[in-house]
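Marked as duplicate of an earlier ticket. Keeping the data here for the record.
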Amino acid sequence: MKKLTFLFLSLAIQTTATLSQTTFDWETLPAPVGSTSLSETRDGITVTFSDSNSSKEVVSLANISYGGSGNCIFSNNSSSVVFTFDTAVNVISILAMNGNPPETYTFTPTGGTNTPVVVEFTGNASEVSLKWTGITSFTVTANQPTPIIFDNLVVTTEALSIPKLSAEQVTIYPNPTASILYIKGVTNITSSEIYNNLGQLVLSNTEAEINVEDLTAGVYILKVTTDKGNFTRQFVKE
């Protein structure tokens, strides 16, 4: 049970440390405004919204009454629209709205190993859970021409630019240790963080030699970030 507990803790620390969530709410766009494409940049990521008919105009709207808040993006009497990212992202969810329910939307991703999501509208709005990883674009297709409206597109950039270093690349020693913990196999350490079994940060520095003499005896998690990637290891303080 103890081994499983620390494995879970290790994974949790890696995930929370490398996830960065971004919400595209279209508030940076003037409204109303129309163009063949609309783009918004948040946290260094740019998403572009357009109709599958490249000559068709899409619009930014303010204070629409179907369930969005603030600005929304909209394509009128459309059968299909496209969201395109300038980098691979994980798409978590999107608020989709429809002016003429009932309708069916099919969300189809490009990139990664993901599957389409089909949503049947009985009302005007639905928060659609997508949970795609590593995609560069996705298409939303309606079963018939309709006003297609969106707000609050949520994505993450989970470790896409921070590769994990393997156990063959990096070692820590001695383990167990009573005083100094050495990190071998990496250079240019950005941070070294030690967490206790409650997930609390108890020690941090940027060195390949860490003095853990003042820590109480027990099992700890070491998380190291470098310019080449990151890694997490478990060690025992004697």
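See parent ticket for discussion. The chain has one helix and 16 strands.
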